[in-house]
Structure formats: structure tokens, C-alpha cells
Request: fold
Amino acid sequence: MPGMVPAGYLAKRVEPNTGWLANDQVEDIYALSNCISDDFGDFTEYWKHNNYWLFNSPAALRSLAEEAGLDLTGTKLFYYEVFEQEYHTAGSWQPFTVDNGLHTRVEVPQTKQLEGFDIVTFSLGPVPECSCLSCNLMAELVPVNRHCLLHTFEEAYSLLSADVFKDCEPGPYRIFAVYSQIEQ
Reply:
């Protein structure tokens, strides 16, 4: 996909309870945000994450989990790529930078399974905040897949450009490709 940048890895406790969401298609929540599907633990205090607040490799994530005593049991490992521009509610796409001094050299996985695309808010800078699809219940209004993600990049880009998410959490908004990490 043009314009997608490797962002990193995160282990999440995928939320299987979706009864609160008025969408029978959704079986679980693969959102990047920590609002519904929890991250594997509070890792930020250790400052081992990268500029995207993710991990450069599965090994780096596992190493931090072991060092910090964070249990990975019951988590699913995801790999993320982010579109190189963010959408501002003023109706414009603009490049963004995430250089906050954290080491960022993401290892791209040899095998990965694209699960869909998430729209994530970034009103406070580099930290991923809410997923408009799950946190703001937009999955009740726009077609999503069984993981509460958009099917294509083009859908995500078009919906943002049409200001469909303007009444969600404050932007800017970024598009993330969400991949299941296939272990070898």
C-alpha cells in the first residue's frame, strides 16, 4: 500500500464481548486503542517503546514483558503500519512527524495477515488514543469486518475525507493497517 510506514508491534487482550455494539458482524475488537481491547500491560514507564508508542520487534516486546513481569498469557500479537499523513478536522490531510527521540527501527515481519484498517485519534501528540470505530461506536454506522475494522485503506481514507468521523473524539486522525502476527 502506498504511503504506509512500519509502526511496530503490540500484544493485546482482544475483547470478545461485543454485545454493547449494535452490529452483528463484529465478533471481537482488534482496535489499536487501549479503550476496549487492553494492551498487555502498562509498558510506557519503561521507555522501551518506539516513536509510535509500539515495539520495534516481537523480541523487544517479549523482553520488556519479562523484565517488567508483565504476563503475555492470553494476548494476541499485532503488527501495525500507519499512513504517512493524518487527517485534520479542518478538512485537510497533512504529513506528520513522530520524532520524540525514541529509537525507531521496526522489523517488518516476513509473514503477516492483514485484518483491516483502524481510524485512531491523536489529539495529544504521539500517543494513540481512541478508535473511532469501536470507542465511538462508528461501527454501528459504517460497514466493518468481524474485528471491528474497515475492509480497505480506500474506505478509511474516503470516510475521513468525507468528515464521517467529525463528531468523534478530537483529531487529528490516523489510518493504521492492523495485521495479525503469524509466528514461525
